[in-house]
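Table S7 (text form). Paired inputs.
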Amino acid sequence: MLWLVRKRSVDFCDAKSVKQSRNKQKANLIYTEWSLNMSSGLSNEPPKIVDGIFPTFVNLTLKSLAISLEDAKNRYEKGIVGEEAVASANWAVTNQAIGDERGIPPTKEKLLQEEVVLWLNVGDERLEIVPGNDHATIAASALINALEEMSSMVEGFLSDRSSEQAQEFHRVAILQAKPEKSPSLEGKTDWQYDKNTDTYNAV
């Protein structure tokens, strides 16, 4: 999969009346916590990232993908389903399998015949994962492998930043990490990215 183009993330799902799951909320909170830390403006010191923006966002993305993978395994390996399919952090069902008239949930075989839409967020930006598109519709039977592949690729960024995918990931992460609020330090009005420390400094 190639992630080459940054696109604004929007609420996307082909399924009708898909509710946001707790795990998706949990994934969003991961990024919300980061955002608040970077933009609070409550301290007299500029926000500092110990390890840099790049590894921080890699780890946040891996956490989000882990949530998605857990959701996928629960649905398609364990057959754990609710009355309605819910969107996970990086995927959603597009054609939900239906149980029988007696209220018995669909079998795992039926669940694996579903289609899902898959995406990858970096903060609130969505990256291109197939040529020309920031999401892909795939068979549910391929979802777990696809998520594992994405996780492996993102984790690999930590050891090799030279690939086009890693560089695009970093570029988006830098844009996402800029604090929204002005610095609280006297005489400082903006934030400037420092490539040597991979953080923002008040200027």
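Next pair, protein 2 of 2.
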Amino acid sequence: MPVLLALLRQLLMAFVSGTIVTGAQAIFTGFIQELVFEIKDTEGITEQDAKDVVANLLVDLAINTAAIMVVLKTGAGVKAAEWLGLTSRNYGKAALSKAAQTAAGKLAADGGKSMARRMLPKLVKLVPGPVGLLCPLS
């Protein structure tokens, strides 16, 4: 009897898991198809071009997700916070000197774009073969 119950439990778990995965897959596939047709109709491009746009979005999403997972798994965020001294002041903002306030004001004025343009070539050297992770700023 316990063997029969264990087998029944496994079958029930497989059925429920399969149903959830199949349902999620159907919803996701339908969503992707609707997204392709919406982009095609809205932008006036071919279906293949719309599929390419959606595929690129999904690749970027996967790369960003992987990057976030790497940062979380390696503890890089905590290491960066410690290196910057955020942990020694309870993760609060530091008092800035006049020179630092001026520099922060310049960065805030253009949204950090000038800094990003200067840093991008340096960051590309750190990441071997980036695929969409560090895209050039327009």
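Residues 50 and 65 are 23 Å apart (CA to CA).
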